Amino acid sequence: MLTSRRYRWLLTGIVLGYLALGTTYALATPPLEASDEYKHYPVVQHVQTQRSLPVLDPADPGLWLQEGAQPPLYYLLMAALTAPIDTSDLTELHHTNPHAFNGIPGQVANKNLIIHNAQREAFPWRGSVLAVYLIRFASIGLGVGTVLLAARLGSDLFTHQVGLLAAALTAFNPMFLFVSAAVNNDSLAILVGHLSLYLLVRMWQTELDPRTHWRRCATLGAVLGLGMLTKLSLGSLLALTGVTLACLALRRRAWRLLFVGGITVLVAALAVSGWWFVRNVHTYGDPTGLEVFIAVQGTREAPMTWQDWTGELGTFYRSYWGLFGGVNVPAPEPFYVVCNLAALAGAAGLLFGLAKKRLPAEEGTWLLAAWASVLFLLVIRWNIIDVSFQGRLMFPALGALNVLWAAGLLAWAGEGRRPGLALMTSGWLLGSALLVPWLVIRPAYAFPAPAPAVPASAEFGPVAFSDTDGAEIHLVGVEMPDGQSVSPADAPVEVTLYWQAARPVQRDYVSTVHLLGREYGSVGQVNRYPAWGMIPTSQWKTGQVWRDTYHVYVAKDAPAPAVLRVSVGLYDTEAQSTLPASSPDGAPMGLVLVGEARLSAGRTDPPVPSRPLEATMGDSIALDGYDLDQRALILTLYWHATGAPSDDYTVFVHLLDESGNSRGQGDGPPVGGDYPTSYWQPGEVVVDEHSIAVDGALPPGTYSVAVGLYRSADGQRLAIWDAVGMPEPENRLILPDLIEVRD
Q1: How far is CA 533 from CA 1, 207, 549, in A?
Q2: What is the DSSP string of 137-203?
Q3: Does the pTM exceed 0.85?
Q4: Mean pLDDT of all residues in the chain?
Q5: Is domain 456-599 classified as CATH 2.60.120?
Q6: 157 touches 205 (CB < 8 A)
Q7: Across 307-373, where does the E strand assignment appear?
Q8: Among 132, 287, 713, 718, fewest CB within 10 Å belongs to which?
Q9: Distance (Å, rounded) from C-alpha 268 to C-alpha 229?
């Protein structure tokens, strides 16, 4: 049996574990990298140094960007906390990485939103770095209140066991730890949201005197006002409060609970927060400031589709359990799988337990689900406006969800087995939370070290990139896995480059890696600072070699199949021009091509020709059919690789008159040379278009078209067999369609 004393000891242990973990997350994440810190902290610093709230100007949004229009309570508190610190060095610390892979967890390297200076950020902290860490620790303290409220909700609505497990599920959620250990108004919003929910539950559970319940309503209203001064989404608790009071009045047939209570809540909430809305009307002409917020943040370019929802669902659940940095540092995939399965088990157990009456739920449990549902609808609404389907936005209801999750999990076990189940579940999260800072977060921001040398197998060039200031950077090595084959929006092409500063560099250049598909059109690219996005070129020392890996994804609409040619360059963002390149002998270079990969069509239905055929050419190519536009003289061939051709072949297309003389031709490599036969894979269908060129006007008559393949090196034609295995004369196939030319 869980005694009150044992309950308190266990809860104390959970809180201490949370504090230790929160401190670890705060120390593992570099300054301004945690959950939009690079936008939130400048608001705090402005309030601290200017003694006023920022005014957001869409034309010049400042360092804080859209966060300058957020409600002010968190920033006011943290500005007061850091008031004695000289934070005038913020502009030096706030060196953003303009090409960071923000919101792209599938990419490698370049996760950092900030270009860091290890010496400036080292302990003992000073200036803005000290302020950031001090605010992080204060925010962790706010999270203690959230953990305690989760325990209280679980204990009051179910049992002490449920309360303890709910507290552990909250305290050891890696994403909650990450958000709590950040300069971000979420930590205060989460606390105030849970406090408001707890007061609502207590109001529902307690027999109220209609003559005196206004005191509780005034307290709740004041807390709701604090919530609206923290985050606008908490304003929806006013609506939930109205529903709760209406239900109470109906159940007790005391309408004074609704009218007096509702007015009291509203007046108290506005007494606390009303000045903020008046200020917004005066400043922006909008009581919420949401219009100027959206003007800076932006909106979706097109209405959401079903594919958008399903595609963004992964971001939602990952950012609920743990998606760190700028929504670009993921945990290992098995972590999400186990968490999702445990959540599903809890949801099923909750329904099972309620149906079988195995859950000793008290009145008011519905409020937990109601608050989570309201918040989820707000997240959905916000995601329709802008790409923001993030699970962390549900955290003002995290404790409520964890109470229901804990109750559902424990419903599966008998009384004697529940402690073991609770220990196993919380232990899983605790173990994951312990490992994440060391195995996930810290490695994402580790400074790369210069390479000792370029491997002999990777030596390339060197190709020299130079600027007008005399700076020179060499591309001295290239590595690409052999036989890379990708499909659109699938696995990336991997390229590793070795850069070397040959002469001192004063500017920060951007490295560019392009994938060139058919007709040398760009079908994928990565633009970022070299050296993993961590060390700009202006910080390189002469002679240092930097090994730099890029993952370049192919655009979904890239024409396939094709050869992907990998082009590399350096770009000057100030001059908005590409640095000129020269070969080892000093000759100017246009494109710097460093390798090739193969782009397949992926898992698509093979195209069907309008005129099917059965013909084989050599031992690895078949012709499945063709389309013929007789007016434009365009022939489309449907090749089928029955094996892996070992050589590059050229297609010949001859227009023959009635005497067998050639009157036009459309010879050329398949797909205009963008997909040579040596790249073809067994089973692949290649659609290949050829225009037949003729000299002058064709005289009236009947014409036929002959096709075939010949070896590019020596002109030797491949043997051709028809559908029954008979060889075609002259190793050419006469197509059955005839072209009639009339006067």
Answers
A1: 55, 61, 10
A2: HHHHHHHHHHHHHHHHHHHHHS-HHHHHHHHHHHHT-HHHHHHHTSSSTHHHHHHHHHHHHHHHHHH
A3: yes
A4: 93
A5: no
A6: no
A7: 323-324, 329-330
A8: 713
A9: 13
